[in-house]
Amino acid sequence: MSIELFLHFLFCCYYFQSNCDLCFCVWSSYDKDIWTEIAKHLDGKSLVMLATANKWFQRVVMHDHIWKHVCLRDLDVKDPGPVGFKWNELYTSAFDGSHSFMFRQKEKHIDWMRIGSFGFDSPLALLTGKLFVPLKIPQEENAEEMLKSTGSIVLKNVKTGVWIADLQLVRCPVCDLNTCDGTMQILDARHMELFLSEGFLNGNWEYEVIGTQDIAKNANGASGAIFDIKHLNDVSTSKIFNHNLWMGKAKDWQPKSVFTKHAVAVNTNLQENNEGLQVKYHVMKAGNDGEVVSIRVSQQLV
């Protein structure tokens, strides 16, 4: 039986229950544990439909541990520990089609796609616009010096837990032409709780540029990546550097992306004789001295 037919059956039961005391007694005798296990195999939309069948199902299906299981399953991440919101709220903010440009700069936005989810176990991130190995962890304190010496930036005080990554296509910030097709892509990563946080919703938290990197003429591609430094040398992270596994072939101009348990990367091949790229690194903090809750790596043709 398909999930649609199954849920239709439940609505029929609800109808008869509402008109028959005997049906209510039979329905109430169903084993809660069995329905809890069934609920764990449904997606968010089906869970909401099931919860509307009657008050008994609402109490069972809307329990936080069910939504936690479903959310972590669909994000394909491990348990991050305590969170600041209910899991059904986190599920909705992750899968309702929301992205950061819906809240800000709608007029600049062109298109987007979901990349996937990854995790920060440590508060240290490595940001880079070049995907060559071996990556060197910068030792300098100044971000511009880091970029100049290694092409990467170490970012401190990152909020640990589950992060969600999207690829955004936006209009060039130096151009206000509506006819512009857009020459700027953004690797846009955020902590799972960002879209529910008051500081983000009321606009008090803003992005700031922490570093700018110029890439010379005839760049092969527009690349950007974010790593949890603790897992930089993990076997799973090495997938990022195996370009043949995920980057497009020559003359494939479609953006490509990849994510692992603790890293995410994007790349778009560029045509020959381009004038080079300018890469900017943006961060959003939860207040002036708060943790980093969102990271953007933007690549703009110059």
Automatic annotation (TrEMBL):
Q: What is one Gene Ontology biological process annotated in the Swiss-Prot or TrEMBL record?
A: reproductive system development
What InterPro entries does this protein's entry cite? Answer: F-box-like_dom_sf
Query: Which Gene Ontology cellular component terms are annotated?
Result: nucleus
Superkingdom in the source lineage? Eukaryota
- UniProt keyword list: Signal
Q: Which residues form the signal peptide?
A: 1-20
This protein is called what?
F-box protein
State the organism of origin. Kalanchoe fedtschenkoi (Lavender scallops)
